[in-house]
Design brief:
This is Probable tRNA sulfurtransferase. The protein is of the alpha/beta class. It contains 14 helices and 14 strands. The protein has 2 domains: 164 residues, VC0802-like (2-Layer Sandwich); 207 residues, 3-Layer(aba) Sandwich (Rossmann fold). The strands form 2 sheets. Strands 1, 2, 3, 4, 5, 6, 7 and 8 form an 8-stranded mixed beta sheet that branches. A 6-stranded mixed beta sheet has the order 13-12-9-10-11-14, with helices on both faces. Bound molecules: adenosine-5'-triphosphate and magnesium ion.
Length: 420
């Protein structure tokens, strides 16, 4: 959570004690700036509809919201809500993909005196320099943007004796003139950017308990994919810890899409079967191919059009270019690897930011460390792998494994998400 919305929540609590205000300061609303979505031409309506649905899903349980779409901007009102509740709404909107900035704003009548009054009050108890930035989405307003800024700036200077500084001020007061009202605000927090979840279709993430796959899932959600998750546990040869980790990772990622499903497949016996077929150095790559084949079977059932993994080139022995090519050969669906060109430290920074790192770092018994051969093949040959799979009847085994998947619904907001 950014400091600015936190500060806004605290100020709101102090000012109104959690009760809806009727002091003429202007109704508190959430104003969001959209990014790429505004560039999508005739597809724009589709994008907006998807985004509005996602916003409603993220606001679930907060009470009635009123959404209004303007050019490149969405305003959400919660009539009758306390400022604290609006601050909570703003916090949730910070996780909705497709949003670039989230602001808590005061909604003020289109009257320069009323606007000036709210702007002056918004700077009470602030210190340091300030600037006013005004813009008009409605050009019929009788004052130009610079006239508005000068007018309000001199009122603030008079009231609080603060110096104006146009370049890199300590505080900025934003005034945005719209069709029916004016919005006044001082802070904001960056959103996730990207595209609304669901806009690009559906895919299945192969989700270990590790650091990489949750970040890969996040990256693809941000490009508009709605994702399901598939975790292979080492059960019955390991405990259930890796499943708990996968569950809490998915719950954490559910903030960004809602309605997440986690499928869990016990993989221990299949690993044993692979080992008994005498694969030796090929154990890891053969296992990964069987995971992918199982994932493909499940994805087809779920309407997923791609698989997603957390592979990064060269990070471990199974991720050499030759081995990655051998993995691609196992399935027909495309395998998306959004982390392929990233360093581990970059992936960890992102994992920390999206709140998955501490969960990933919990100890568990990963199924991949079961039955690991002493030496791992770094240049697996596709004909060798295919031969092993014929002996194992890997296609049928994958069908069987997909059939054993148990589904969970880890929801960030709790209860039934109701999302598609
Ligand atoms: P991660 O941190 O995501 O576990 P990793 O660096 O440990 O990745 P590998 O263990 O080789 O690398 O796994 C590469 C990818 O294979 C993972 O990112 C994930 O997509 C998939 N994968 C590995 N183990 C599992 C598992 N137990 N269940 C589901 N997918 C897995
Ligand atoms: Mg791993």
């Amino acid at each position: 959570m950014s400091a600015s919305l936190d500060t806004a929540a605290v100020e709101a609590r102090e000012a109104v004690g959690g009760v809806a205000r009727s002091d003429g300061l202007g109704e508190l609303c959430v104003l969001m700036k959209l990014g790429e979505i505004v560039l999508k031409g005739s597809n724009r309506q589709l994008f907006e509809r998807r985004l509005h649905n996602n916003i409603r899903a993220a606001a679930r349980g907060l009470g009635e919201i009123k959404l209004s779409q303007r050019k490149g901007v969405i305003v959400i009102r919660m009539p009758g809500a306390s400022d604290l509740e609006v601050a909570e709404l703003g916090e949730r909107m910070g996780n909705v993909m497709g949003v670039v900035w989230v602001h808590l704003v005061r909604r003020v009548p289109k009257d320069i005196d009323a606007v000036t009054d709210v702007a002056v009050r918004s700077m009470a108890e602030r210190t340091g320099t300030f600037a006013v930035r005004a813009r008009r989405r409605d050009k019929r307003f009788p004052m130009s943007s610079s006239e508005i800024a000068v007018h309000i700036g001199s009122a603030i200077r008079g009231a609080h004796n603060l110096p104006v500084k146009l370049k890199k001020p300590d505080n900025t007061v934003f005034v945005e003139v719209d069709k029916d009202e004016v919005f006044v605000f001082t802070d904001g927090m960056p959103g996730q950017g990207g595209l609304p979840v669901g806009m690009s279709g559906r895919a299945l993430v192969l989700m270990s308990g590790g650091i990489d796959s949750p970040v890969a899932a996040y990256r693809m959600m941000r490009r508009g994919l709605k994702v399901d998750f598939l975790h292979f546990s080492g059960m019955p040869f390991t405990g259930p810890e890796s499943i708990y980790k996968a569950y809490s990772l998915v719950r954490q990622l559910d903030r960004f899409q809602s309605g997440s499903r986690l499928f869990v497949v016990p993989f221990g016996k299949a690993q044993q079967q692979i080992k008994n077929s005498g694969v030796e150095r090929l154990q890891i790559v053969a296992q990964r191919r069987l995971m992918l084949k199982t994932a493909e079977t499940l994805a087809e059932r779920l309407g997923g059009a791609a698989l997603i993994t957390g592979d990064a080139l060269g990070q471990v022995a199974s991720q050499t270019l030759t081995n990655i090519t051998a993995l691609d050969d196992a399935v027909d669906l495309p395998i998306l690897r959004p982390l392929v060109g990233m360093d581990k430290s970059e992936i960890m920074t992102e994992a920390r930011r999206i709140g998955t790192l501490t969960i990933s770092e919990l100890p568990d018994e990963d199924c991949c460390t079961l039955l690991t051969p002493r030496q791992v093949e770094t240049a697996a040959k596709i004909p060798d792998l295919r031969q092993i799979e014929r002996r194992l009847d890997a296609e049928e085994l994958a069908e069987h494994l997909a059939g054993t998947a148990q589904v969970h619904k880890p929801s960030y907001l709790g209860g039934d998400s109701g999302a598609a």
